[in-house]
Amino acid sequence: MTAAPLVPGPVTVRVPAKVNLELLVGPCRSDGYHSLATVYQAVGLYDDITVAAADDFGVSVGGPLADGVPTDDDNIALRAARLLADRHEGSPVHVSIRKGIPVAGGMAGGSADAAGTLVALDHLWGLDLVREEIEEIGSELGSDVPFLVAGGTAMGSGRGERLAPVLARGTYHWVLALADGGLPTPEVYAECDRLRGAHDVPEPVATPTLMAALRTGDPHELATQLTNDLQEAAVSLRPDLGETLAAGMEYGALGGIVSGSGPTCAFLVETTEAGIDLAVALTASGVAADVRRASGPVHGAHVIHHRVD
Ligand code: ATP
After folding, report:
1. Å from CA of 68 to ligand 1 middle
2. How far are the Cα atoms of 24, 300, 304 from residue 34, in angstroms, in the given order?
3. Closest Cα to atom 18, ligand 1: which residue?
């Protein structure tokens, strides 16, 4: 009796969220994007992406934070699947997303799903692409996608898609204050431009003191270096974020910033125990819709399950 051929079964990839330790926003470019100098850190809030062969391309979304995620062709994970299929003659797949990353929260959840889908399909279809090729394709889908493939801590330039490694020691503990509703990223950039008015904005350059702080592994050092040029704009659109930031500092955070374009606020704490205390205090105070703890840096998109039938 001959054995039935092995059929590649569903592949599941786990992909983290990001915080920007530094987000410096330069002038608006002719293509409509702003030039950025940013330092990303991947943190342990995750979406799980499962891809499986199907009769047609499709996407479904579940998990604790699924509200507000499109399940049609607007879903960036589905766009990622179609793009990779076009490039590599892949057949239709269904993408299932389990959302644990806040939607429109400034933590790059959509980009994470695109990154996870590319890594999962590379595995399902046996493409064996090198990571740089996956990042290259990812950059066509969104500026943060290459970083969610890479993970760890990295510097991003261009519109954030050009990555360079950063030497970071230690593990950092974060408390994330989630807000009700999201903030559309384009609106936050528009508000940033409005607040800046006619001032000339220089090309942004990552700060050497932040790099030095990351080499020490000391959260106190890093806390003094957290910077986000979009914070003022995010707080201008959502004044409640000012209260959230003040509460986090009052309850013992070493530092706090709006994450990316917001509205999630990220607080750096010294230890896991300090993170539990701050999470409890923020929850009790009612300033945040929800509170999560996560540490970083963590790995980028990685396969956690592959069934072979
Ligand atoms: P960033 O930090 O990269 O600016 P974000 O974290 O603020 O992004 P996302 O969660 O990526 O925001 O979602 C932005 C919008 O993208 C959502 O409001 C939603 O309409 C759309 N979207 C498309 N696909 C997805 C997806 N797979 N997950 C979440 N949102 C998605």
Report:
1. 9
2. 10, 25, 35
3. 104
Task: Write out pLDDT tens, residues 170-214.
Answer: 999 999 999 999 899 999 999 999 999 988 899 999 999 999 999
Query: Is the separation of the CB atoms in 58 and 18 below 8 Å?
Result: no
| pLDDT tens, residue by residue, 84-97 | 999 999 999 999 99
Find out if CATH 3.30.230.10 is the number for domain 11-166.
Answer: yes
Tell me how far the alpha carbon of residue 110 lies from the centroid of ligand 1, in angstroms. 4
| Exposed / middle / buried, residue 297 (Cβ in 10 Å: 0-12, 13-18, 19+) | buried
Return the amino acid letter for 44.
Answer: G
Residue of minimum CA distance from atom 15 in ligand 1: 104
Whole-angstrom distance, CA of residue 103 vs CA of residue 107 = 8
Please list the residue range(s) of the chain that carry CATH number 3.30.230.10. Answer: 11-166
Distances (CA, A) of 168 to 41, 145, 151, 152, 199: 10, 21, 12, 9, 34
Structure-token pair, residue 68 = 């507000």
CATH superfamily assigned to domain 172-296? GHMP kinase, C-terminal domain (3.30.70.890)
